[in-house]
Amino acid sequence: MVTELRFDWFGVPQAISRTRVFDEEEDDVKQAEAAKAVDSIPAYVERCNLFVILAPELFHRDTGMICNSTSWQLRGWCISELLCQQLSNKPDTTIITLHSARHAELNSWQIDWDAVSQSHFTEDRLMVSELVRKSVAMKIQHESQTGSLAYFRYLVTGQFKLARSSGELSQRQLSDLNEEPRKEHQLHAVILDFQRETSSMPGLLCAVLSGDVQMIRTLVESMADVNLRCYNLEKICRQPSGHTPLMIAARWKQDPAVLQTLIELRADLTAGSRFGSQVAHWVQLPGQVQVLAAAKDLESMGCFRHPPLVSVACWAGPDTVAEMIAKRSDFGSLSAATKLFGSLEGITPLGADRSIANARGDLPVMLASAQGHQAVVDELMSF
């Protein structure tokens, strides 16, 4: 049995050396060779049996900053390889993250279409964006021939969101790119009876995930159910079952205008999931908080076992939590979770003790790091 390992740390040569000066002809050759190496990344990922992220928690020798799986996910080239793994045609796209010699984690993350635009680059953002764009296009072509219609629609809406979030396409190009998903939505509006819609990726959800406010209005006015319960999305996009389009829009970091449109079309702000969570538990952006607060008192939203603020602090950033507090969202009882998740950058710590471990032995800083909240880690290490 032959085992081959490909390390991305030295797997792709740099187009131009940072320390040498090449003549124009030599530079052209190196640019061409680097482009070939970059274009081969999806093929390498497609053929690999295991995708392993080696990200132990260490301090950077030069900057002193913590390097771990969270910082890995913020690096542009790393996130491009992650997206290639998620978009591959392999039956198993599980990701293995090695945090230490004794701590390994199996993940099957949902695709973050904003990952490239939010990643850190010294340069090469355009090159990475093009690489991911090609990977998405190939995946769509594959699914259109052999995959499910629901997953195909999900990829098409993601393609549009990816292009729009990159900020590198003109309005005309975006309109051209949106032509196909718009045709899909219009086909739904004309042919299907939305009162009997049984697809796991109905037209309204496609419009929500692509951020198409105009199409959302068109579909709801054509009798699409704005409070439709969406099911069977776990395998498609890791989306919990039973959520409404409004809840999904919040969870998927859609522009606040999408939430505003759904609310204007009488989306139910108090609709709960099968576990009792409401849209206020899933907000990801400060603008989403502002839209909800303008429509309803946040203190009255939260029949769940804990207030929205505690849930939001688990997966949203410090700005969103600060906006929740500014809008007088209820803290609830000062449980251990509230104390931990309340210790965010820019917010007065609520008494979390970083030396207290839970029953399994996890320290707060370990839990914060595992959730990817670097701001929480920094704050906990400060007191």
Q: What is the count of helical runs?
A: 20
Distance between the termini: 52 Å
Low-pLDDT segments = 17-21, 181-196, 331-354
How would you classify the helix and strand content by structural class?
mainly alpha
- Per DSSP E runs of 2 or more residues, the count of β-strands stands at 5
Task: Report the radius of gyration as a whole number of Å.
Answer: 22 Å
Protein architecture, described:
Pfam families: Ank. InterPro entries: Ankyrin_rpt (IPR002110), Ankyrin_rpt-contain_sf (IPR036770), Dendritic_Spine_Reg/Scaffold (IPR050889). ANK repeats lie at residues 241-274. Keywords: ANK repeat, Repeat. Among the domains are: 1-123, no CATH class; 148-253, no CATH class. The chain has 20 helices and 5 strands. The protein has helices spanning 24-39, 41-47, 69-72, 76-86, 115-118, 125-146, 149-166, 171-177, 179-191, 203-210, 213-221, 234-237, 245-251, 256-264, 286-295, 308-315, 318-326, 336-341, 364-370, 374-380; strands at 51-54, 58-59, 66-67, 95-100, 103-107. The longest helix has 22 residues, at 125-146. It is globular and about 60 Å long. The termini are far apart.
